[in-house]
Amino acid sequence: MGRVSQAQAQENRRRVVETASRLLREQGTHVSVADLMKAAGLTHGGFYKQFASKEELVDEATAHAFAELTRHHKERIEQYEGRHGAAQQALIDTYLSIEHRDSPADGCPVAALATDIARTGGDGEARRVYTRGVADFADWLATEDQDGITRLCTMLGALVLSRATNGTPLSEEILTTAREALTATR
User: Fold this and answer.
1) Which residues of 64-99 are buried (b: 16+ CB within 10 A; e: fewer)?
2) pLDDT tens-digit profile of 128-171?
3) Ramachandran region of residue 82, left (φ > 0), alpha (ψ -120 to 50) or beta?
4) How far apart are CA 44 and CA 157, in angstroms?
5) What is residue 24's three-state secondary structure?
6) Is residue 77 over pLDDT 70?
7) Rounded to an integer, what distance in angstroms lies between the CA atom of residue 159 and that of residue 101?
């Protein structure tokens, strides 16, 4: 089997990072390299041609997830023609929805990666990216009347609790109650 071109190697790396970003949000950082590579449609042996370590991939996948989140915020503001308050409310409604609860792989990296980032400790790149992403998200959620950290904590807590109680009436009640609380304080 011949060597892959530089362009193909870059495409393979991009595919692995995107796949890892989804899988890490869905399954956590304990997902194996073999499973990540299989999901990306590549061989396990090719991993170390692309990355020095799994930690390097986690760093890049975390950065990718937060870049997606930032892009999503910008698109939402554009969709609402610069009306930040309307964009925030639409985000809150989407964030605290059954669809978001049931789709962690496509969802918010703040909620999906919180426990894993907390467990890693230290001051690694993934933690730095995560911390900056949380701060940026909180800034984006801030209003004249309410601190963005409070709003983010309410949203995050509700989403995590809703996921943990999924399959029970309490799960949907948590989402609804948090959504109403955030709407009432606008």
Assistant:
1) bbbebbeeebeebbeebeeeeeebbbebbeebbbee
2) 999 999 999 999 999 998 899 999 999 999 999 999 999 999 99
3) left
4) 36
5) helix
6) yes
7) 6
